[in-house]
Amino acid sequence: MKSVYLVGVAMTLAAFAISPQLVLAQSGNAPATTKQESAFACNRAALTAQDRKRHFDELGPALRSMRTGVRELSDGYEFQFPADPKTVQLVAEWAAGERLCCPFFSIELRMEPEGGPMWLRLSGRTGTKDFIKVDGASWIKQ
Hints:
Helix content: 40-55%
Low-confidence stretches: 1-28
CATH topology of the largest domain: Gyrase A, domain 2
Number of domains: 2
Mean pLDDT: 80
Number of strands: 4
Shape: globular
CATH class of the largest domain: Alpha Beta
Strand order of the largest sheet: 1-2-4-3
Largest sheet: 4 strands, antiparallel
Structural class: alpha+beta
């Protein structure tokens, strides 16, 4: 019986090392969450040198040239792209990198039905739209 208990404790500790929130939620002792808001700044150091080059020097310019439309929103912008598999893959890769360097963005990818276009939505809390206007001015130009 003692060995079964120790195995259970070891498994719980291993699971906690992997996902402390999961173990706490399962045990009913979820920690109180305090929401920290990041600064409105691009943290380029969040990406490796190789990833930074890919994100800013390759993906960004390629996607800006592929963009087929822009919509202004109350809290950000939406950018329209063709929904072919290659473009979808590039937009998703860019979004994953952008999420690391600009964690204050809410990023959504949406594909319209019946072969319609794909939309990349960048939005967020108050100030996000102004950040995009300044830092992402080349994305907004039509």
